[in-house]
User: What shape does this take?
Amino acid sequence: MSYLRSVLFSIPLIILSSIVLGLISLVASFIDRTGNTAHRVARFWGKTLLAVSFIRVRAIGVEKLDPTGSYVFAANHASYMDIPAILSRFPQQFRFFAKKGLFSIPFLGWHLQWAGHLPVDRSNARNRLRSMHDGARAIAEKRVSMLVFPEGGRSPEGLREFKEGAAYMAIKAGVPVVPVAIVGMRELLPMHSYHIRSGRVLLRAGCPIPTASLKLSDRQELTDRLYREIATLLAENPHNLS
Assistant: This one.
């Protein structure tokens, strides 16, 4: 029954809402080049996807953050639904990285660029570093936050080793980095699956870690701290999602 609901109800509505709201977001990003209006549309899109999937998300720790502040959010990544979950509960204006190739696709690429999202080129370390530098500059110049998945992609289980990008950007921009744990989403929509199960998900935002006194040479130490804090947040009462 759950599988039929996913295939016959949730997925068609996800596709429909993504097309409709994507077109609205495209128009919004053309009119408002700051990307702020497009982000508000994206927040509604995230809430819509969760609603039609019967996924309820509760956030803990968001009250510790300044709604208008700039941060680097570093989160674990296990599911396609992670970004909708964060969009639905975090009030900050934030941008994220997308694969460089997506920016060459008509309409989608235009939207990503106009909305202020950034391309990431993972072909070599030098290009990745340039992407992180662009992210730090966007934070400093546009006063927005950045969402980063330090694992570099979705993980089928546990936590993979973290890359230094989140720490690099936070130190370079001089903004706090916030560890974020997404608890329970992997069980509802795991990798390589289109069977969306209904259920509850918990977002845990840790205390912001200041970076004003740190140097770029401290980025590995900060990356290790992020890993430990996210692992701890994931382990805290993992079955208490109500």
Summary: The mean pLDDT is 91. The longest strand covers residues 177-183. Residues 2-31 form the longest helix (30 residues).
